[in-house]
Amino acid sequence: MATMETKAAGGIGDAVLRKEDRKFVTGEGRYVDDLRLPGMLHAVFVRSPFGHAKINGIDTSKAEALPGVHRVLTHATLPAETGVLSASNPPGSDVRQPEQPLLARDEVRYVGEPVAIVIADDRYIAKDGADLVLVDYDPLPVVCDAEAALADGAPLVHSEYPDNAAATISHETDGFAEAMQGAARTVELRVVNQRVTPMPMETRGCIGDWQQATGEVTLYTSTQVAHFVRTFVSIVCGTSEAKVRVVTPDVGGGFGAKLNTYREEFAVCSASRAVGVPIKWIEDRSENAVATIHGRDQVQYYTAGVDESGKVVALKFDAIQNNGAYHQLLTPSISHLTVFMVPGCYDIQNISIRMRQAFTNTTPTDAYRGAGRPEATHGIERLMDAIADDLGMDAAEVRRVNFIKPEQFPYSSSTGLVYDSGEYDATLDEALRLSDYAGFEARRAASEANGKYRGIGLSTYVEVCGLAPSAVTAAIGIGAPGWEHSTVRLHPTGKATVITGTSPHGQGHATSWSQIVQTELGIPFDDVEVIHGDTAFQPYGLGTYGSRSLAVGGVALYRSLGKVREKAREIAANLLECSVEDLEWTGTSWQVKGSPDRAKTIQELAGAAWAASSMPEGVEPVLEATTFHDPPNFTFPFGTHVCEVEIDPATGRIEIVNYTAVDDCGNVINPLIVDGQVHGGIIQGLGQALYEETVYGEDGQMLTPTLVEYLVPSAADVPEMTLARTTTPSPSNPMGVKGIGEAGTIAASSAIVNAAVDALSGLGVRHLEMPMQPARVWGAIQEAKA
Amino acid sequence: MGQTITVTVNGTAHTADVEPRTLLVHFLREQLTLTGTHIGCDTSTCGCCTVHLDGEPVLSCSVLAVQADGCAVRTVEGLSEGGELHPIQQAFHENHGLQCGFCTPGMMMTALGVIEQNPQASDDEIREALEGNLCRCTGYQNIVAAVRSAADQMARS
Amino acid sequence: MIPSTLEYTKASSIDEAIAAVQAGARPLAGGQSLMPMMRLRLAAPGAVVDLGGIAELVGVCEDGDEIAVGAMTTHRAVAADPLIGEHCRVVAQAASGVGSLVIRGRGTIGGSLAHADPHGDLPAAILAVGGAVIARGPGGERRIEIGDLITSYLTTSLADDEIITQVRLPKGNGRSAYAKFHRRAIDWSIVGVGVAIGADGVRAAATGVADRPVRLAGFEAAINGGASAEEAARAAGEGIDPTADLDGSTEYKRHLAGVLAAQAHQAAQG
Predict the structure, then answer these.
(1) Phi and psi (nearest 5°) for A215?
(2) CB contact under 8 A, A250 and B139
(3) The domain containing residue A619 runs over which residues?
(4) Is residue A395 classed as helix, strand or coil in its secondary structure?
(5) For residue B46, what is the nearest residue in chain C, using CA coordinates?
(6) Single residue among A585, A600, A629 that ends a domain in this structure
(7) Which residue among A112, A176, A690, C93 has the highest number of C-beta atoms inside a 10 angstrom radius?
(8) Predicted interface score ipTM higher than 0.85
(9) What is the CATH number of domain C176-269?
(10) Residue A728: inside a domain, yes or no?
(11) Interface test with C, best of B64, B107, B133 (most C CBs within 10 A)
């Protein structure tokens, strides 16, 4: 890090208020539904009401006769080169990639699959028109549960795949079988990580604008990955990538739901080409519930071989992932991330893994906050409690016995990762202290005196983020690299523009990136503008997901700032008539060592570089630099969350009475933003633990199609949280940063479930599945008592 | 089919022709291009579309535009005056009470109703009163802090 | 998110409203139940008549042994009304828990009853005190006891051309309370129970356990027969057969009815 004599407010490490806020609190945010183009028409999709059906025919005549309806397009009339593409082909997994046409051709395979698109003057008429499209269906047998789908004789989702198998990822270390055989005892556990729905408060939406004369197409879309959408639009719509522009306006939350390329994005482009005007589609919430990817839906079978000290000497993990009816952008890779993190923060060198992925008649699953890692963490953290229970050990102690020790870093895991840095005991110690773990038994007794069950639960997690080294993404079959872009441009006045390839949707990159600029280049926070989200004027960027923005995009920015600073040094040396070695950086200027009166501020140097009248030999005008940063490794944030609950045996309701999180994400740019990410992350994990589940009925109908049935918690339903941090910098990047966007979600669910199981352990309850709704908890109590 | 209505929005009277089925939120967003009021659900669960109708917070998805004929509507665009942020806006900013910003306008409009009805509200009462506004980003902790801080600020001024 | 085409009129008197209803319009009260159904196109009335402009439908007053509550009185007003609080606390409590703060400011007591949601709190609370509604149609007014009003899931005994104009709450139910259980704060009750301790004994009525609000005969018989609240709670599930769903099993809901009845009974005594 650059030397700084004074630390001005607004630099790295300061809790600076966000520069993004003003437009949002005044209603001047511009989300995709706020945009309107001249001549724009509106689209509503007709969607399958069946989980699986043959399409005999589609009668669009009534809809087309409705005044105000311009066109009704179906598979037969909507032009496209290909269907939706997946970028995920895990090697050795025999992955199958079923065709996913933009509009269903002759078969629908999940409720909500798009069948036709109605284009009309406004959304009201388009909806009326959609209700008039008559589709003749023959319902077919459905299967929604992944284990059932892989069983013999299950209904087939795709008739060409006679076993519903989508992919299988297998991995076993040498010596696993011997180690398992030699284990003193084994502990088994089945864990269900239920299907959930991301539910960003802004649904998806997009506008396609195809210029007939030039063949240029602009797609405005609520996405996390604008460039990736551009690449795929060019392929799917059959046009040059150079003619496709993707614009990301303000995005109202993503959580992985918008880390994708969807049928509707291609369809509005293609429809705009067919109709000749811009076409807007905005997803309704109940449409979002079926048309946007879901997350999780994994059943896990653990067998741990354990010695008498509680040390896991061998671990077998056999799991089934529900992929849904088709493969979206990364579907087969999500459970691959689970595979990577099966051992968690524990030194488990003998491991056997099988991850079977299944097709079902459900909405495809894909990345949802944490993407594969929450499943791994939830399972291994439940397993650690099961081992502690089996051995009669304390839950914290069994973790300590198994932790990877500080001196083992960089640590090569049995699943092929190299963990960068960690000090797991430190977050555990701090979390136990803050949560008064030692005083818990007294609190438990007090609750019992009041007729309540009280429990405490731990989650000691590590996660893999900062996606990703490009060689690794290639090796694991993801058809996209993991580098990130940044450009720093200094204007003649000394103000700066940062162009970033990251794609914030609530993370506050404009603020954090400005802080980095202030610290590294001495340009005041307020003099920095950060722009993103328009492929027309920014080089390729990979976007925002996988807690990568700071660890990859931020580091790309850091490196560009270094380039600018060094170029400025050469110009300063020329102006000050000295050698570059004679200069020292003060934090805001280059000065001759020991001579504060002989200095040039960065602003002066920006002006001089623009004026270019006295440039050193061979140095180009203008202070501007670009970096494409490909990280050498992932980063591995970690921490300990402690949850304490009280359960009312009369109703089964779980009340969280205490929640403490100690996280370590390396160096922190803005503690305010980091805390905000942790808060939000925990509450999404809590949502999964207590409230949320996407449920399909036996007939393939979704039973949770609106926010009335799908229980996103409100302020009234969640607790206050206590946060703290330790700091273990990552050695993998010069800023020592990791990532924090997903950690809270990855950590939270197991802490909460462990607490609830602990509360009921005296009754003999050994496990609870999520969501732990009151009826389920009450049922477990009755069963244990019976 | 259309009916002519006059609605005073943020102090300005607008006369317009609307289809009777037009929701107030669509009237505000599409006809008046006041896009600060958002739509987050279709079941009256999320509160994103909350505005004030004659001084009372309402879900603008649950009111027909024709029902607002002759009424005064205040939206998020009407909160700040002369470039000065309203205390509720300032408090959301200062407490990092927003991330993606999508729920924020509705959250603030409900919060103002809460403060009006119970200026001394405790944290628990604030949480209870915000039960009809969903946020997927913040985990609510900073929103509660923002509402408490705005209530204090408004009580002082 | 988009209602079907409709015609809209705003009535300025009850007679005007009835004329509109006779012509086929659906009454639109606070809109907090009907509007969401229209947005999802679960309801598609070709015409609605807005009752929001009829002054005589709003307000609470004493009328002999009863309290007369205008059908268009909002949940917030019902919850805060001193007369209702004094004489029919269970109704005020139920009103204070409907929906959210914003919904309570617009939703109405008459609208809730006419909507007849099997998880609605107000019908159970009013059944607990033995209330009634006054319905008016072209032929005049009639009184419908609350137990006769809601006949099934989202169905009432109102004639097509009748509207609820008033809710009648008998005085003397000051010792009463409402207890409900739901998952999120905003959610409909899984089960809710209103209990009133009147001159002729304890009445208990539940929502969420049938397709309409029902009296908890088992609980009432036990408690009026001198059983303890705990014993009576165990009897609360007698004769009810709630539908199992994502919120819980039949057995769980029966159990909840007892737990909530005991809670409400306890609170009613205070």
Answers:
(1) 75, 10
(2) no
(3) 21-28+483-534+541-629
(4) helix
(5) C186
(6) A629
(7) A690
(8) yes
(9) 3.30.390.50
(10) yes
(11) B64
